[in-house]
C-alpha cells in the first residue's frame, strides 16, 4: 500500500493522531480526488477516514457544501450518513481543499428498502428549517454544478426546449406546486439529501442490509423532491422504495397530483444530467417529452384548477349514488353489489406511472 505525505492542516483536524499508518486511493470521482487515511491515535486505537480533495474556488465551495449538508443530516440521523470531521485548505497548497469524514467499507447492492426508507422518512420529518423557509445556508453542488435551490440554467441551445419553457413556467409549475399550499393544504420544509440516487447510497452491514447515504447537496425543501431522483429508469430505487417511504410519510395533498409532481421533480435531475453529460442526448429528450406531456395535460395552468369545483363534483357523484341506491332498494328490495357511481367508460386511460 503506497504511503503519501498528509498535509499538516489535515492532521490538525483529525483527533489526537499519533501516526499516519497509510494513505490510499478510495473510489472514483469525476470532480475530486478521494483517499482513505488510516491512522493510529494517541490511545493506540486505529481509525480510518475518507478524504476528498478538490481545487479552486468552486472546489472549496463544493466541499464546504458537502460538509455542511452531511453535518445537518448527521445531526438528525447519525446512523444514516458518515460522521463529518472537517473541511479546509491545505497548508502547503492554498488552492487545494479537503473534506474529511469517517471511512466506511461498502458491500455490493442496495440497502433494505424498509430500513433505508425509515431513516429517510426520519430525516424528512424529524426536523424543521431553522428559518422556517425553503433553501440552505450555503451553496451546494450536484456534481460540479452549483445549486442555488432555484431552477438551474440549461446547458446548450435547444429551440425545442425554448418553445416549451414559457407555457411550462406559466402553467405547469404553478398548477402542480400551488395546490400544495392552497385550499387548506400545507407543507413544511424538510431537510433533503438533494442528490439521492442509487450511487449515493450503500450497504454498510451485509447481514442486515443496513445502509447509509453520502455525497449530499442538501437544502430545506418539499420532502417529495427527494423522490424525483428515483423516477428515472437509470436509478435502481424501485417501487418498493416508494412504497416503503410512504408507509412512514404519506403523499402530500392533493394526492391526485402526486405522479405529475414526481415527474416535475424528476425533470430537475434529468436537466442536471443533461448539463453534466451534454453529449448524451437522451437526458434532454426525456425532459422535453415530459414537458410536452405536462403542458398538454395542464393547458390552463393553475387558473384552470378549481378545488371547489372538484369538491362539488364529488358531492354530486355521492348524491347520485345515494339516490340510485335508494331506487334499487325501493324496486328490487336490495342492492346487488353493483356500483352505483357514474361509469368511467369513455374517459381517457392514464399512461402515468402511479408510484
From TrEMBL:
Gene3D superfamilies for the chain: 3.90.1200.10
The EC number(s) this enzyme carries: 2.7.1.172
MF terms in GO: protein-ribulosamine 3-kinase activity
Highest taxon listed in the record's lineage: Eukaryota
Catalytic activity: N(6)-D-ribulosyl-L-lysyl-[protein] + ATP = N(6)-(3-O-phospho-D-ribulosyl)-L-lysyl-[protein] + ADP + H(+)
InterPro entries linked to this entry: Fructo-/Ketosamine-3-kinase, Kinase-like_dom_sf
This protein's name: protein-ribulosamine 3-kinase
Lineage of the species this protein comes from: Eukaryota, Fungi, Dikarya, Ascomycota, Pezizomycotina
Amino acid at each position: 500500500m503506497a504511503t503519501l505525505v498528509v498535509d499538516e492542516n489535515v492532521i490538525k483536524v483529525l483527533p489526537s493522531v499519533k501516526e499516519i499508518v497509510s494513505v490510499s486511493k478510495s473510489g472514483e470521482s469525476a470532480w475530486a480526488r478521494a483517499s482513505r487515511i488510516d491512522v493510529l491515535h494517541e490511545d493506540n486505537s486505529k481509525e480510518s477516514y475518507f478524504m476528498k480533495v478538490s481545487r479552486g474556488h468552486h472546489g472549496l465551495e463544493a466541499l464546504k457544501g458537502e460538509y455542511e449538508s452531511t453535518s445537518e443530516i448527521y445531526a438528525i440521523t447519525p446512523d444514516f450518513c458518515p460522521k463529518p470531521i472537517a473541511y479546509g485548505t491545505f497548508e502547503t497548497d492554498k488552492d487545494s481543499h479537503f473534506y474529511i469524514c469517517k471511512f466506511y467499507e461498502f458491500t455490493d447492492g442496495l440497502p433494505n428498502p424498509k430500513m433505508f426508507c425509515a431513516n429517510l422518512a426520519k430525516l424528512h420529518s424529524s426536523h424543521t428549517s431553522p428559518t422556517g423557509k425553503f433553501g440552505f445556508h450555503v451553496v451546494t453542488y450536484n456534481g460540479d454544478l452549483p445549486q442555488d435551490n432555484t431552477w438551474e440554467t440549461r446547458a446548450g441551445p435547444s429551440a425545442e426546449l425554448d418553445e416549451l419553457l414559457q407555457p411550462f413556467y406559466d402553467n405547469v409549475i404553478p398548477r402542480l406546486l400551488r395546490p400544495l399550499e392552497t385550499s387548506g393544504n400545507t407543507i413544511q420544509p424538510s431537510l433533503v439529501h438533494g442528490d439521492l440516487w442509487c450511487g449515493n447510497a450503500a450497504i454498510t452491514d451485509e447481514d442486515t442490509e443496513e445502509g447509509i447515504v453520502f455525497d449530499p447537496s442538501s437544502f430545506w425543501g418539499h420532502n417529495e423532491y427527494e423522490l424525483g431522483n428515483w423516477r428515472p429508469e437509470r436509478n435502481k430505487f424501485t417501487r418498493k422504495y416508494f412504497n416503503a417511504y410512504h408507509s412512514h410519510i404519506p403523499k402530500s395533498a392533493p394526492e391526485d397530483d402526486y405522479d405529475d409532481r414526481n415527474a416535475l421533480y424528476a425533470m430537475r435531475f434529468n436537466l442536471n444530467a443533461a448539463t453534466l453529460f451534454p453529449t448524451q442526448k437522451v437526458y434532454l429528450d426525456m425532459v422535453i417529452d415530459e414537458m410536452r406531456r405536462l403542458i398538454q395535460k395542464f393547458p390552463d395552468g393553475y387558473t384552470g384548477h378549481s378545488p371547489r369545483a372538484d369538491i362539488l363534483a364529488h358531492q354530486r357523484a355521492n348524491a347520485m349514488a345515494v339516490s340510485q341506491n335508494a331506487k334499487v332498494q325501493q324496486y328490487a328490495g336490495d342492492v346487488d353489489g353493483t356500483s352505483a357511481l357514474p361509469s368511467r367508460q369513455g374517459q381517457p386511460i392514464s399512461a402515468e406511472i402511479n408510484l
